[in-house]
Amino acid sequence: MEIIVNTDHQVPCLPVIFIARLPRTCHQADKTPVDWGLCSVDAYIKGWEAADQERAQSRARQRDLKLQTLVRLASVMLNKSGYEGLSLAEIANVLGITKQALYYYTKSKEDLLFKCYTRALDLAEQAYDHSDAQGGTGFDKIASFVRFHLNPDAEPYAILDNLGALTEEHRQAISGRAKALEQRMRGFIREGVEDGSINPIDPKFAEFWILGSLSWMPKWFKPDGEVSATEVADSFIQLIGDGLRPR
User: Which residue intervals are the DNA-binding region (predicted)?
Assistant: First the structure.
């Protein structure tokens, strides 16, 4: 996908940190706007200011903040265009830097994919830790997990749908960690069966259903759409409850 930069209008949606150097609006070659489902630019002004402050304190910290921004943007673009449609040149263009400068933050396209998947698993682990800390029944923990992912301030994450593009080493690392995290969801389901908040059910199939549905939400959910993240979370939890909870 070729990107054409238009500087006549302010970007309605941009990632953090690189904001001061970003082009105003990005369009595809057919003049239609590129929609990556990103958040409003206003939400990231404080992030840019924080990066400026970090610059004076630590170059390593500044690099880390910019790498986080790069991975956020790449995650959204992956969900929109897939790995084959992901272009480092386009990412550099959107960020207002050269493609060569991009290699300061990532070794290759495959390395960037690995970073996106690693970050997605980091976010999932945070959600599980948060749900465990909240306590309650097994079903309560599942509901907490869903709300953590679908709160209005939740960060975008890459869907793990192209493991075959990773090197063998990276693929094993991501697959192994993903399977370990899946066991935590099955643990919530087992707790629910034991405490009576969930009907007796095979935890494996229930986990496939819950995580399969939740993981694909970045494909269709838009934070600035007609339905809010809170409303989506409420509906999703109701659907899970209708399927799992005793009547």
Answer: 87-106
